Amino acid sequence: MSGIYIHVPFCKHKCDYCDFYSIVPSGEMDRFGSYISQELRLRKNYLGNDTIETIYFGGGTPSMLGIKDIEAILDDISANFLLSKNAEITIEANPDDLGLIYLQDLRGVGINRISIGIQSFDDGDLKQLGRRHDAAQGLKSIEWASKSQFDNISIDLIYGLPYSSTKKWEDNLATAFGLPVKHLSCYHLIFEENTPLYRKMNKGAVKPVDEELSVEQFKIMQQIANRHEFIHYEISNLALEGYYSRHNTSYWKQIPYLGLGPSAHSYDGNSRCWNPKSISQWSKAIASGRLTIEVETLSENDRINDYFLTSLRTIWGANLADVEKNFGKDMASKARETANKYLKKGMLEIEGDSISIKPEHFLISDGIIVDFLI
Ligand code: SF4
User: Fold this and answer.
1) pLDDT of amino acid 173
2) What is the mean pLDDT of the chain?
3) Per-residue pLDDT tens over the stretch 327-368
4) What is the pLDDT of residue 170?
5) pLDDT score recorded for residue 165
6) Distance 65 CA to ligand 1 centre (A)
7) What pLDDT does residue 306 have?
8) From the CA of 231, how far away is ligand 1's center (Å)?
9) What spacing in Å lies between the alpha carbon of 24 and ligand 1's midpoint?
10) Which residues line ligand 1 (CB under 6 A)?
11) Counting atoms of ligand 1 from 1, which one is nearest the CA of 131?
């Protein structure tokens, strides 16, 4: 069981807070789909004979791709890999790219999950973030996705925004839970270096929210989500039962994946590798039938750290019997000792051999997880 990730590195313009690898296209999109197809043929043995359970078009802005490109990529995946009949196939989309016909076409070519970058239902917030859509477009995109038979709709929301208030965040959540949305990804705003927002902060034009407000907004998110039977299954992700992101859950469960496109990462259980963060470097290599991949073989310590870093982000947590089986008795007893410290503080819970961070402590999970690392 494996996944395929396709990184579509195009954005119509850069949002003020974003530091993902993406470019404003000037002709590079024309051959992008065919380069992805060439790359997947070059790397068709990367996952052995594993069945592909999930495909994820991420970005950048995958909804800038034409339907023909998406269809051709999916056809090539089916021709070169064993694709599960009930594979989860997700596309990330920006609201202003989503018209009814495009959405119906996405369903028609087999996309069965859509993750829409709403970020906020407030025009002031969207302006502040430098988004190119407004609140009305956000609402319309969800309505149209639902009309186009998308049952599995996820949206992204950002909290901890400068000038935000508890009331505004509550309103955003109330709007989200009034819509046919089954999955929410909620991220706290980060002032990433080398972004316009970061520069504004340095000039004193915007100020990060204080910690108290961040904690309050996080708690509000959990309370409201709980009322609507959403499960907080990972630090930043909440969903109705049966609507967890299978693709992202695979990352947290160390399931192998193949990443295609510039800057995409891949993982085969023993090593990680990644493509260059440059569309010209990546496409030149692919066009000449070569790969320009950097590889990092994982040491046992890397694998132990990866295991705790990913598993403890989720409600399923880390399994200490697995730790003993895979990494030895000493490692398992060190993990038990650390776990006991947090069990006593009431921050972890234990069920059988599995330990997990209680969702109410997800916000400080980094500080707990770091204690499990070697
Ligand atoms: S659309 Fe998404 S990937 Fe593109 S700049 Fe904005 S936040 Fe970044």
Assistant:
1) 98
2) 96
3) 999 999 999 999 999 999 999 999 999 999 999 999 999 999
4) 97
5) 87
6) 15
7) 95
8) 27
9) 10
10) 11, 14-15, 18, 20, 22, 59-61, 94, 117
11) 6
**Residue 20 one-letter amino acid:** F
The count of residues in the chain is 374
Question: For residues 133-156, b (16+ Cβ closer than 10 Å) or e, as one string?
Answer: bbbebbbbbbebbbebebebbbbb
**Can you list the domains of the chain with their CATH numbers?**
2-251 (3.20.20.70), 317-374 (no CATH)
163 pLDDT more than 90:
no
| Site to substitute for ligand 1 among 18, 63, 263, most atoms within 8 A of C-beta | 18
% of the chain at pLDDT higher than 90: 95
User: 196-241, pLDDT tens digit by residue?
Assistant: 999 999 999 999 999 999 999 999 999 999 999 999 999 999 999 9
Which atom number of ligand 1 is nearest to the Cα of residue 94? 1
Q: pLDDT at residue 127 above 90?
A: yes
